[in-house]
Amino acid sequence: MSSGVDVRIDALVNACERDLGDEALWIKPRAYPESLALCIIDSIYSTGAQYGQVANIVERYRTYRSGQGGNADLDGPAELLATFDELGSAQAWAEQIGNRRPTSTTPGAPLKAEAVRDGASRLVGLGIRSVEELRLTAESDAIDVVNKSWLEVPGQRSGVTWAYVLMLAGIPGTKANRLVVEYVADVLELPVGEVDARSVSGWIRDVAKTKGWNSIHTEHAIWRLQTRRPVSGSVVEVADVAG
After folding, report:
1. Can you tell me the distance from the alpha carbon of 129 to that of 219, in angstroms, rounded to the nearest whole number?
2. Dmax over Cα atoms in the chain, in whole Å?
3. How far apart are alpha carbons 35 and 213 in whole angstroms?
4. pTM above 0.90, yes or no
5. Euclidean distance between CA atoms 233 and 235, whole angstroms
6. Which one, of 29, 27, 25, 45, lies nearest residue 171 by Cα?
7. What are the record keywords, sorted (predicted)?
């Protein structure tokens, strides 16, 4: 690291120690380390939703797959797409597993179930059928192609849900969430427009390494702070995503 980066990391470490409290008490995000299907479902349904609503959908999917003799916690996007084929349509999937929430408030916006199917289809089309394949892709520039494709899914162009797919899969993101960027800019006393999201992601990893923290949990704790949610507690969640 250059001395300039060292100074930034030191400032961020001090700010995180001050603002985030005891790392052992942080509210941790949910994780599906072997189920890309659940990462997709959870991330898309988490926008604007309460914790219980998302958890119920995940459990309904688990129950449905168990009834088929499958295991939702090992499913990839191909297995997820098969459930849409079996039920006949995204609307039928929404009624039996998901819910009828739309992807946006725009009149005629497609259901979130449609976005789940589209997102899964795009990943399969790009050759990503498991968390492990996504992890390998995230280690190369090819992840930018996947990110760009995901942003074309109805209602997902902000990039928030893609960041949560990676988080739920246990994969550090390459670009920090907008609210995390704002926090870092404030700590470093820099204009937000001059702070690169990719650089912020790297700095957060450096902070976590310095402190012996999990980098995904660190970014999540900052996000909770920025959205005025409690940072510490006994809940394990990623829900009501809005920034």
Report:
1. 26
2. 59
3. 24
4. no
5. 6
6. 29
7. Oxidoreductase, Peroxidase
